[in-house]
Predict the structure.
Amino acid sequence: MEKIKKAAELIKNSKNITVLTGAGISVESGIPDFRSAGGLWSKYDPFEYAHIDSFRKDPYKVWKMLKEMHQILQGKKPNRAHIALKELEDLGKNVVIITQNIDKLHTLAGNSIVYEYHGVWDKLICIKCGNEDSIENYRLDEIPHCEKCNFPYKPDVVFFGEPIDHEIMQKSNEAAENCDVFMVIGTSAQVYPAAFLPNLAYRKGIPIIEVNLESTPLTSSLNTIFLQGKATEIMDKLIKEVTNE
Ligand code: APR
């Protein structure tokens, strides 16, 4: 049976669907990913710009990259792939989305359960005194400073060297181990512990559907149903198969 039909059958016969998404699902919304050619890490060394120690040492240098990210994220909209995941929920499926993305496009698309595994862009936190604020209160061209202690704010995203929020990790692990099908969309599966989530499903014998432009370490090791192509095109085809359009 053609792989897309096989994947659609699995989804049709599933009630609980857990989805891990990465930057690749937002590329067609105009947000470059990290590790493809021209991705953000081809411009900024992540260990120089996205490690918590770098931020502590020189927050102004890190804000050079953060301001660029802020500009990129402005006004971006969910694409067909994000919408397709909302449509699965509208079909009555229990969809849990675990996203590594900080762009909030899944929330904008309307899915009701979204675990933001690497945090969210629009919340600011002061690593010195714990004060919080919203990035909406600041202009794109300024570096927001804590109103209490005047240290530069950090977007509440998980930098390298920082832990994942404990509750989000727990809920994500549970969702990976308690679903009928696990989908992985647009991630290179290079960053842990996020990349370990599909393994949790695999160890429980849960089938895995992978959507990506290219194969990843998951493709063969977890024997995924690998749907190669652009997330918008694949997810559009998949939804049409599921709804027999
Ligand atoms: N459709 C499907 N897949 C795509 C598309 C697309 N249009 N465009 C790119 N991809 C795939 C790429 O082939 C790649 O496998 O998406 C993946 C993106 O991988 P990365 O850039 O590594 O992004 P991600 O996996 O989300 O990175 C994980 O690393 O730097 C940290 O915190 C950052 O959350 C990020 C984490």
